[in-house]
Amino acid sequence: MPKISSGKRYAQAAFELALEKNELESWQEGLGKIADLTTDEELMALLQNPRLPFDAKKNLLQKRLGEINLLAFNLALLLASKGLLRRSKDIFHQYNNLLDVHRGIERAKVTTALSLGDKERDAISHRLGEIVERKVVVDAQVDPSVIGGFIARIGDMLIDGSIHQKLETLKRSLVEARR
Question: Of 40, 135, 25, whose CA–CA distance to 89 is shortest?
Answer without folding.
Answer: 40
